[in-house]
Amino acid sequence: MYAQMIKSTGEGVKSLDDMEPEERAFQERINAGGKIEPKDWMPEGYRKNLIRQIGQHAHSEIVGQLPEGNWITRAPTLERKAILLAKVQDEAGHGLYLYCAAETLGVTRDQMTRDLLSGKMKYSSIFNYPTLTWADMGAVGWLVDGAAIMNQVPLQRTSYGPYARAMVRICKEESFHQRQGFDIMMKMAKGTEAQRKMAQDALNRFWYPSLMMFGPSDAESVHSAQSMAWKIKMNSNDELRQKFVDQTAPQAEYLGLTVPDENLKFNEETGHYEFSEPDWDEFFDVLKGNGPCNTERLEARNRAWDEGRWVREGLLAHAEKKRKTAIAAE
Amino acid sequence: MSSPESSPYSDTDAAPHGKARATEWPLWEIFIRGQHGLSHRHVGSLHAADAEGAIKNARDVYTRRNEGVSIWAVPASAIAASSPEEKGALYEPANDKVYRHPTFFDIPDEVGAM
């Protein structure tokens, strides 16, 4: 997902009876569907875990602008260009909603940015794949945003108030993203033979990386069990992946494209699709920094931060000067 | 692009909410009036060097789809908030005054709407 492999306390989930009164009240509130707000008492593990998760999600939105930004100047029509520009601007907005939610937990945005730039904090593995053709803009919207929505819709009910509210805003805007992606795929899949081939190629390259977004099976993970007890993770990785395949496979069929998986077939009995697992060695390798674009992405973010420094400092200096002038005039 | 020698972005630990370090852009809480006639509602926060910048940034971050007709930006550090621990004591005086609600009074049906 946009947040992958988030570690919790590493201990098992405590039973209510093993908790101190404060923690017990906290957990009971979550169990009852209540929200935790910034000034409420919370266990340190919950706070730290959320900072990691929301921060990673925010970084993914920001780094996610790069593969799409790659095509703004080369969009095939002015309309497509304007739409893509609006979408990339939304991604920046999503990053900012999320940084603002994380900041209520006692970390600043600049601190999180520094941790991204130094490689200490991660972003989703998916953005380390290149966008080679215009059809990739379609595949990214349709598959990558589609996979993100699977995770983000349930997170609107997450226990941490500021995070849940950020997700509500994000989900409203994400469906525009997925539709614009599918619209590009439709145009290309029903276009010339060359366009159809390009669309198929984009599906071939983005299918497995999209399945990887949900992370490896976490049925046995203590981290996931704790996150689910805290309601900062709402579904297991396998559950969401299955839901994604069930939704996406018929859409590929509608487009007349072939999902690059010989084992993909609908199981009448279960009502679900059967499919092949992605290559998890590749996933861990990309997370470690060895994906096709890891270096390029981090370099681009570092460059933006360094080259924007004079703007940040300049505006701050100007604000200070205005403040002093105003005081002197009084 | 050159910038002054000493880095204002040195590594420091996290700061409490709204207490931006002197070298970071301060945090602003943003309130938006959705439509004429409704009050401003808190939508989130953002960073800006000054009030003017905060309103411009709020326009880009929170009103990309015509969500608002008016924006308030308030320095996050200027907001006073009640504390959750005081919830009981703070609201208790209202709890036993059920007669403040109109449903406390039974009005006969024949009297009509009241």
TrEMBL record, chain B:
Q: Where is the composition biased (Polar residues)?
A: 1-10
* Residue segments, region Disordered: 1-20
Instruction: Report the InterPro entries cross-referenced here.
Output: PaaB (IPR009359), PaaB_sf (IPR038693)
- List the transmembrane segments: none
Q: What is this protein called?
A: 1,2-phenylacetyl-CoA epoxidase subunit PaaB
Q: Which residues form a coiled coil?
A: none
| Originating organism | Sulfitobacter porphyrae
